[in-house]
Structures are given as C-alpha cells and as structure tokens.
Amino acid sequence: MAYFATALVLIAAVAAVATALRRARAADEVARGLGRLSEGRRARQVLTVPAGRLGAMVAAFNAAAPELYERTRRLEADRQQLRVVLGAMAEAVLAVDPRRRLLFANASADALFGLDASSVGRLMPELIRSPQVQDAVEATFRLNYPEAYLSEFALPGRDGLRPAPRILAVRGSPLPGDPTAGAVLVFHDVTDLRRLERMRQDFVANASHELKTPLASIKAYAETLLDWALEDPSVNRRFLERIDEQVDRLDALIRDMLSLARLEANQDVFRHEPLALVPVLERCVEAHRDRAEAGDLALTIDAGGLGLQVTVLADEEAVRQIVDNLIDNAIKYTPPGGRVAVVCSASAAEVAVEVSDTGVGIPREDQARIFERFYRVDKARSRELGGTGLGLAIVKHLVSSLEGRVEVTSRLGSGSRFLVRLPRAQAAAAPPT
Ligand code: ADP
Predict the structure, then answer these.
(1) How far apart are CA 188 and CA 191, in angstroms?
(2) Can you say how many angstroms the Cα of residue 271 is from the centroid of all Cα atoms in its chain?
(3) Which residues line ligand 1 (CB under 6 A)?
(4) How far is 395 from 277, CA to CA, in rounded Å?
(5) How many angstroms does the Cα of residue 271 sit away from the middle of ligand 1?
(6) What is the three-class DSSP state of 412?
(7) Could you give the angle at the alpha carbon of 125 between the alpha carbons of 121 and 129, nearest 5°?
(8) Dmax of the chain from CA atoms?
C-alpha cells in the first residue's frame, strides 16, 4: 500500500516536472520567435502548446507571427523602394524636423547643397548657408498641411561644388500633424529651362527686329516712289534697286531662319552617308571664285594630296552649307588684296577643314558669342554686306549634328581662322569569310 502511495507521488512529481519543462520550452520558443521577428526574420511556429493561459498565448503568437512577419517585410520593401525612387530623382529632396534639423536628403540634394551622410541630424542653417533656402524652410513651417509653398530663386555658385549660379524652383510641404512633424522641400533645377525660354524670347525679339528693318526700307522707298519719285528718272531706278536689295535681304533672312528652325526641330532629312570630302570642298571654293575675284582676293584650296579616300559620314548638303557659310564670311570680312585659304587635313580619326582669311579679325571678347543667333561684331557692316547674323549659328548646329566641333582663332586686324573637325567615316567592316 505504502509502495503504491509512493509510486503515485513519484508519478505526480514526474508529471509536474514534465509540465513545467513543456511550459518553459514553450516560453523559450515564443521568446526566440519574438527575437527573430524583431530582426525582420520569419518566426517558426511554436509546436509545444501547454495548457492554460500560456497555451492561449502560444496559440495567439502562432496566429500573429506570420502576419507580423509579412507586414514588416512589406514595410521594409516599401522603404527600399522609396529610397531607390528618391535616390533616382533629378530633383533635390530635403526633409527637416520641427527643430530645423535635417532628417533626410537624397543624392541630388547632396550634390546640389554639398551634403553627405554626416549631415543628417544637423541644423539646416549650419548645413546650407543660403538665406533663400532658409526662407523656404520657414515659409513651409508656417503653412498647414496640405498647403504648399512655391517659389523660385537663384542659388549663387560656390567654388568646386557648384561653380555657376543655379535657378531653383522650390515646393515646400509641411508634414501632417498639429504641430507638424516636419517639412519636405523639393528643389527643381530650372536653370536650363529659363535659359532656353530667354533664348526663345530673345530670338523672337531679334527676328522681328531684323525683319522690320528691311520692311521699313521697302515701305519708305515705295512711298517715295508713289509720292513723287516714280516720274523722276534720276532716282526712280535707284530706289527700285534698293527695294530689290531689301527683298533679297528679307529672303536671305527668312531662308536662314527656316533652316535654323528645321535644324532645331530635327526636321532636315539629311542622309548621313560616307562622303568624299575633298571634291565637295573644291566645288564650294569654285562657287565662290567670282566673288573672291570681284573683291580682289586670292582664294585657294589645299587638300595636301588627300583624294577621294578621305570620307566623312555626312550629307553633302550639310557639308556644303557649313563650308559655304565659312568661305562667304571670309570673303565678306576681308578687305581687297587679302587672302582666303581652305585647307583640308586628316588624321586616323578626324578630318579637319580650315577656312582662314587675312581680314578684319574678331575681337577676343566676341569670339565666344559669334555662334549665337543674330550676334554680330559690327551690325552695320554685317547688314551692309548682306549678312543675316545666322550663318555661324547654322554652321554650329550642322557641325554638331555631324558629331564634330567648330572653333575660331582670330586676331583683330590680322585675320580669322575657323576650324571644323569631323569624325572620319569608318571603313566598312569586311564581310565575314
Ligand atoms: P553674318 O551674316 O553677320 O556674317 P554670321 O553668323 O555668319 O553672321 O557671323 C556672325 C558675326 O561673326 C559676323 O557678323 C561677324 O561680325 C563675325 N565674323 C564671322 N566670320 C568672320 C570672319 N571671317 N572675319 C571677321 N568676322 C567674322
């Protein structure tokens, strides 16, 4: 009997120990599972499910763990995606907390404002010393979500980081909350856009002016003829000739403006094919021979023995327009008795065409600008010579469409040299044998 009682006690004790161990194991497994979840890893299901409250907790854990894991995984994926999107944005994005400390800056903001990883957490006025940026931050904090602050300002250049000033459009949005949790500012660099707008406005203004001048002359001569000069043989022919000249000028202007517009809109259907350059140069020179002789100028061409083997990948019409414009200018701006020379040379990769003259030359400060539309060193002289102010702008466009470069060197009073470099057409690859 006593043995039986002892056995019962022993069995009860063993059962109690086993239950305690199960409970402890379940608690350990839950703790381990929570640890994994907090590290963003998947938690294993707890298979030891004891009775009672602990068992209910284990069951709740088993039910919640996959859901929790899935949610954190999705959050982390969203965060990564957001980081990639912000990193790839051309706009500079800054987030600032209510104490004006930097919370976040994307790669474009780092580049624009010279920030790096150590900038996060530091005060904005310390990081970006621009009163306009600080104004934008403060103005954004004065707004209520979802209002937005919009502005545009010039950010001065800084050595090394940002040598030229930039024009920035900023949009500042406060974050939701009362008081707000911070502000997000997006800076869009609109420098090129504004420059293009400006160029377009200038072009329209210049073009209207250029067209108005010959029109005004035509009108004045026509009125004078109608008023009295038609019957006066000493002037009527001369006035009609002036009208004819002005019409030619209008025609040249409109033709150049159309060529430029077509070039800019990529509408010219040039077919760039391997083209033997020297014969084209020779034809251009010959086409100007009479004008050169009329101006008492020596016009020469030197292709250094290069023959048909020098080819460029270009449309003949494009090359002709480039060379014609350069020879035409050289003749226009060289006084009688001078020389105009066309020289062609080639290296393995490029062909160089040089058009030089012994003419009036171009002041150093104007040399960078003569390729701009309607820019002329001496307006009156250019007009008198029938220039439109567009020739070199067309040359520059055409040369860059051929992936080449054009440069000028000139000395006032001694002459100018325009050098066009074009890539040589690669010899067609030998067919596989
Ligand atoms: P334009 O029709 O006035 O010649 P271009 O665009 O061809 O217009 O040239 C712009 C300006 O560059 C000219 O007005 C002239 O002042 C200057 N220029 C161009 N080529 C020469 C040259 N060979 N010698 C001196 N000045 C030149």
Answers:
(1) 9
(2) 26
(3) 325, 329-330, 333, 357, 359-360, 362, 370, 375-378, 382, 387-393, 416
(4) 16
(5) 28
(6) coil
(7) 125
(8) 159
For the CA of 379, the closest atom of ligand 1 is 14
Q: Which atom of ligand 1 is nearest to the CA of 359?
A: 24
Residue 381 Cα, ligand 1 centroid: separation in angstroms? 10
Residue nearest to atom 25 of ligand 1 (CA): 361
Instruction: Quote the tokens at residue 279.
Output: 């014969």
Question: Looking up tokens 């001078």, which residue turns up?
Answer: 338
Is residue 238 over pLDDT 80?
yes
The minimum-distance atom of ligand 1 relative to the CA of 330 is 23
- 193 Cα: distance to centroid of ligand 1 (angstroms): 28
Contact 103, 87 (CB under 8 A): no
pLDDT score for 1: 63
Rounded CA separation 239/220 (Å)? 10
Q: Which two tokens stand for residue 285?
A: 């020179």
Written as six digits, the tokens of 189 are 């660099």
CA 133: distance to chain centroid? Answer: 23
CA dist 38 → 31, 77, 402 (Å): 11, 16, 60
322: left (phi over 0), alpha (psi -120 to 50) or beta: alpha
Residue 373 CA to ligand 1 center (angstroms) comes to 11
Residue 282 · residue 301 · CB < 8 Å? yes
Distance 265 CA to ligand 1 centre (A): 24
How far apart are the two ends of the chain, measured CA to CA in Å? 107
Per-residue pLDDT tens over the stretch 4-53: 788 888 888 888 888 888 889 989 999 999 999 988 899 889 888 888 88
Name the band, by pLDDT with cuts 50, 70 and 90, for residue 433: very low
pTM equals 0.70
- Helix 391-401 to helix 236-264 angle (10° resolution) is 30
One-letter amino acid of 67: E
What is the distance in A from the centroid of ligand 1 to the CA of 270?
A: 25
Q: Nearest-5° angle of CA 290, CA 296, CA 298?
A: 80
Overall residue count recorded for the chain in this entry: 433
